[in-house]
Amino acid sequence: MYMVNKPPRNSNGVGNMIRGRHPVLKLILVIGCAFILWSLNHPNSPISFRSSRTFSGSSEERAGTPTNSYASGTRAVSTFHKVTETCTKTVTNVVFLKTHKTGSSTMSNIMLRFADNHNLTVALPLKNHWELGGYPSYIDRRLIDPQLPKYDIIGHHFRFNIEKLREIVREEARYITIIRSPMDNVESVFGFFVDQSPFNDWLANVQADTTALRLHTFYDKPESFFTKDTDWYFRSKNHMFFDNGYDVTNTDESYIDSRIQEMDNIFSLVLITDYFDESLIMMKHRLCWDWQDVIYIKFKMRIEEAKTEVDQDLGEKILKWNHADYKLYDHFNKTFWKGVDEYGRDRMAEDLKTFQVKRDEAEELCIDSYQPFKKKPWMLGAKLRPKPSEYCKHLAWSETVYGERLREKMYTSIPGLKEDSEEEEAKHQALFDEVAQGSLRKD
Question: 3-9, long-range: CB within 8 Å, 24+ apart, which pairs?
Fold first, then answer.
């Protein structure tokens, strides 16, 4: 709440003019004051004087953590409820929350390819970024390119906040995300980020020369390593819960349950990595899409030698430490299969055969082999056949490559849209650094 101090009484001058012979001036000043108060409380409105990308606000806002944080246990559950009507035509307004290490790069390609094929607008990261809206801060519309009133498709990594998203997508948008068995997710997160923060900070002095040994070392006693004073600490605990906007360290059961219920109210579908093809069939059904809309080829795979076998003892430790993610997965795995039952198990089995034939045909047509990445030799990426078709290129493009295609397409096709100058890009980069880096150690 903003407090406005009353001006001192004045027997002459402006105060006397307002009270006396200038009613029009009085009206203008009253309207002006009202607009200022309204604008302060609606900073993201397109007519607010705070609506540009120029950064302003309290130190907490500059750190990416509003006073009434979305992750806070005191925040009331959102009243937003998903669209429940069965689609009758192709759904073209979709928000896909790309969570980390859940097979979501493949999903991003599906979303961006759909947007490209249907000439839809897409919320893109700033140039030279691969995460959207100031991640790990909550999605910030000032850090989206291009700047548009509303977007049809969102398909990159970002941190979920339903209130901020409703400002940039239409009310009829369908919300979708993807989650994975916590044991597999943790093993994948650890394998991918083992040479990055926070793990390289916490385990720098640990005598363990393999990812497996480092994983076991951390989970033998995670509380001895874990601290929120380390950048990217949330990668090590309830990472999926974090991406959905919540506090990874709040262990209160009522808090966790209320946030899972909030997600249930918001998301039209939560895909399950462990049943990826079945999930895509359900998405195709819920969105009235075609087979070609959900065909994919594998993007990134770790070599077998880089994977860690999660035995029962390690698995139990992972589930205990990542309790919120465990409850999240348990709830939506059950919800998913309830949806499959409604769809029909026999129907799913037939569709699965059809889909896998089409998927294998695309891979045979387009993929020559899977080759190691230069910077991460334990990861394999798809190598296309010589002289690939545009269809194959589009199937294989990462979200960064596809994002640049869509950026160019929007700037050349949307009337009046102009790309930033170098000076504007520098200002937006500074804003990104301030917002994103301020959230590395905060909820």
Answer: 4/33, 4/37
Q: In which region does residue 175 sit, left (phi positive, over 0), alpha (psi from -120 to 50) or beta (all else)?
A: beta
d(CA 48, CA 34): 12
Which candidate, 113, 91, 95, places its Cα nearest to that of 151?
Answer: 95
Mean pLDDT of the region 271-276: 98
Q: What is the pLDDT of residues 29-52, one digit of tens each?
A: 555 555 544 444 444 444 443 333
Q: Which amino acid is at 359?
A: R
Q: What is the DSSP string of 260-317?
A: HHHHHHH-SEEEEGGGHHHHHHHHHHHHT--HHHH-----EEE-GGG-----HHHHHH
Three-class DSSP category at 110: helix
Calpha distance 382→420 (Å, rounded)? 33
- The two tokens of residue 373 are 């990445």
Q: What is the pLDDT of residue 433?
A: 93
Place of tokens 């944080």: 69
What average pLDDT does this structure show over 400-421? 96
Widest pairwise Cα distance in the chain:
87
Instruction: State which amino acid sits at residue 180.
Output: R
**pLDDT tens track for 160-178:** 999 999 999 999 999 999 9
* CB hemisphere CA count around 356 (13 angstroms): 11
User: According to the model, what pLDDT value does residue 47 have?
Assistant: 41
The secondary element (H helix, E strand) that includes residue 392 is helix 390-396
Measure CA 350 to chain center: 32
From the DSSP assignment, how many helices (H) and strands (E) are in the chain?
18, 7
The pTM (predicted TM-score) of the whole model is 0.83
